[in-house]
Amino acid sequence: MRIDLNADVGESFGRWRLGDDEALLAQISSANVACGFHAGDPLTLTTTCRIARERGVAIGAQVSYRDLAGFGRRFIDATHDELRADVVYQIGALQGISRAVAYVKPHGALYHATISNEAHAAAVVDAAARFGLPLLGLPGSLLLRLAVDRGLRAIREGFADRGYLPDGRLVPRDQPGALVTDADAVAARVVRLATTGEIEAVDGTVLRPRVDSVCLHGDTPGAAQLAARVRDALTTAGVEVASFA
């Protein structure tokens, strides 16, 4: 058994520091690196990509709406062409910093929009197709279906520290149960997901999403320690942590 552990990194901006990227990169196998539209500045991204390469961690472009003030967590009603250009710009910027970019993952509100919004899902897929890069997204999402239609590899993602609705989507962050903060609970959820393919929704419904990668949020307090706890639990359960890239 094997599973990928991914996390959002490179989200500091100037003097504003978010998370402990260096410690987190010691525990994960794939890094979703911000591309400057929701977070991240050129020096932060350069440093983050360098550490990822040194640690053998795969680098992904975490693309978002152009929403620095809202950290990319607000929906923006961009046209298909506007969004495609924005995503191409972000991927190109990160590739200019590191030629090792191996996949694309939408961030925040864009991630959720690409589950069912055809124009925005198609814009992200069109941008990724320009670079021939795989896409990381929610199982069953329109994003991944369109990716397969374009001949791109679709990577199915689960979440370690986010609550699930019975339909397999994530609980909105402003609702109870959106975040799972207990380290033991998070570790147990990931082990169950990796070994049985199951995860429990907030109402007790057992979901079977089939995932290739599990996300830990880098902006969660103590994210690096949580990632270490999860990795230890997976190793104990006989699950190898390795990137899909």
Describe it.
The two termini are 16 Å apart. The longest helix is centred in the middle third of the chain and has 18 residues, at 80-97. This protein has a single domain (2-241), classed as TIM Barrel (Alpha-Beta Barrel), CATH 3.20.20.370. Helix 5 crosses helix 6 and helix 7 crosses helix 8 (223-236). The chain has eight helices and ten strands. With 245 residues, it is α/β, with parallel strands linked by helices. The strands form two sheets. Strands 1, 2, 3, 4, 5, 6, 9 and 10 form an eight-stranded parallel sheet that branches.
Condensed summary:
This protein is an alpha/beta fold and 245 residues long. 38% of the residues lie in helices and 18% in strands.
Radius of gyration: 16 Å
Q: How many domains comprise the coordinates? A: 1
User: What percent of residues are in strands?
Assistant: 15-25%
Q: How do the SSEs run, as a string of H and E?
A: EHEHEHEHHEHEHEEEHE
CATH topology: TIM Barrel
Question: Any key phrases for this structure?
Answer:
single chain; 245 residues; alpha/beta; 8-stranded parallel β-sheet; two-stranded antiparallel ribbon; 8 helices; globular; Glyco_hydro/deAcase_b/a-brl; LamB/YcsF/PxpA-like; LamB/YcsF family protein
